[in-house]
Design goal:
The complex is a heterodimer of chains A (107) and B (464).
Chain A (H helix, E strand, L loop, with lengths): L2 E3 H4 L2 E6 L4 E7 L3 H10 L4 H8 L6 E7 L4 E7 L19 H4 L2 E3 L2
Antiparallel strand pairs in A: 1-6, 2-3, 3-5, 4-5
Chain B lengths: L2 H4 L8 E5 L11 H8 L5 E7 L6 H5 L6 H18 L3 E8 L3 H17 L5 E6 L5 H9 L5 E2 L8 H5 L3 E4 L4 H8 L4 E3 L5 H11 L4 H11 L15 E5 L4 E5 L8 H8 L8 E4 L2 E4 L4 E6 L2 E5 L2 E4 L4 E20 L2 H5 L1 H16 L5 E7 L19 E9 L2 H16 L14 E2 L5 E16 L9 E6 L2
Parallel strand pairs in B: 1-2, 2-3, 3-7, 4-7
Antiparallel strand pairs in B: 1-8, 4-20, 5-19, 6-15, 8-9, 9-13, 10-11, 11-14, 12-13, 15-17, 15-18, 15-19, 16-17
Classes of the chains: A alpha+beta (107), B alpha+beta (464).
Chain lengths: 107, 464
Amino acid sequence: MPSRPLSEIAKTIRSKNAGVDRITFDVIFAARADYDHVRHSGVLSRAGVCRIFGIDDARITDYVEFDPALAIKFTIRRKRPSGSPGDADIFGSQHYGPLLGIQVPGM
Amino acid sequence: MPVSIQQRRSAEPSLRIVCPNGHLGFAPIKPGSFAIGCAAEPDLICADSGSCDVGPGPLGADISSSPRQWQVQDLEAMLLASRRLGVPMIIGSAGDTGSNSRVDLFVEIIRELALKHRVPKFRLGHFYSEIAKDELRRRMISGETVEGLDGRPALDFATLNATDRIVAVAGIHPYIKLLDAGADVIIGGRSSDCAIFAAPAIRDGFPPALAYFGGKILECASFCAEPYAAKESVLGEITMDDFKVTALLPEQRCTIASVAGHAMYERANPFYEHFLGGHIDMRDCRYEQYDERTVRITGPRYVAADELRVKLEGSGKIGERFVGIVGVRDPYTIAHIDEVIAWARRQAEEQLGPGGWELHFTVYGRDAILGELEPLKASPAHELGIVVQAIAPTRELAEEACMIGTRQMFYARLPEVKGTAGGIAFLLDEVMPASPAYRWTINHTLRLDDPLELFPTLLTEAGV
């Protein structure tokens, strides 16, 4: 089945602090059909997110499909608060990197 | 001014707020769209100046994360517009952290600007948000549980003792009190972003749900519009029935996608926004394209809290810090970089003993940014950059630990390495002093009897 990377399908893929202990990810689509397709594909389901980042489900604190914005949104707990020594992404603003290349089947 | 903005003020009672900057002082206000906003009959000019995104350092060290000149520029633009138009100006979370010293700094800047421009006398209100460690300790001893947020355990005395500075996050209450007292300009301590905008609207009798929702959308200024452009002004209008937001930069529009997308920005859950006194529930929000550059929102619900709990943010110093930077190009060394790091760490232990200092090795080109979340950590780049951070109680020890951690990578003993004249490349054969290391010790809530009890307000005069 043909597939395309998420970066070619989503309009916005971003990450950002949600408070000092969490990082939230937004994947926003321009078209309802793309949003529905990716949602139903499972690549960004809770289990999909766990696979991508190699984490347990317990690290995901929130997972929402947000229809008004055509967005898939999930939030993960940081291992240590933002800006602690050794944290190299104080704003959480580059954690979305691994999402860009995710292959979405059937596109 | 775009026609759509001129014609939009409805006959219904409404409150119009211009927000020129989503983090005042952090990067300068763009004057073009702000001028358009000032010509659009605003009732207030409001901006948030704070964020915990800047990390625990500024709060702990009690500094701002931006140069004073940038803060002056933004405050000057807002003050002159506010006084010229005769509408109130409100700043929340002064100087990034909203600590007492940052409030005093902004008050002083406003006073200086008022004299410099010979602004006619006006009433300058301000309030503080810090809570002293001793005061929090007293409340804990008297039986109050300081509950953890985001999965943190309740605050214990050890963590409190390791904290240098604490701010409480104010709601609408000190702003309303100062507006009631006749303040023309308000400099607020640490506050909920949305409260800065909601306070005047709620004071004027508009529905809290729309007021708080509007505040949430306005607080990042042009981030709620598209295409992406930061530091441009937006205009919000609250009525009894709806909230509307309009992009003011001619190249930008507010769209359903941009506003709904912003409604979920930098929060764990897009449906709820919590603040002192309650939360709003946004599950039934409806977004409509009102005109070309305006979105209309209806349907948020306000839920008052059963118990008043205020959010506390606290930062504690870990130690002094030095930083070293090295590079690696040998593929064999790159494949065994963890052994190189372990070697350097062992040398530090042998020289300095096992405790009383920390070394952190951040490996750019492999997993620096995501750490254990990095899916590609097993396939590093052809060259690595490693930042070594050492933290210790004294600068002398931090410098020595950093020097050991950095230089001993040069001497790491890998069994099959071909290059025997040095295991790493130095950018600088030195280590550099950095700002002290802090951590967020407190992300908790405290019960209050009165929403004003931690937020003393003061009203003075400024101008000539």
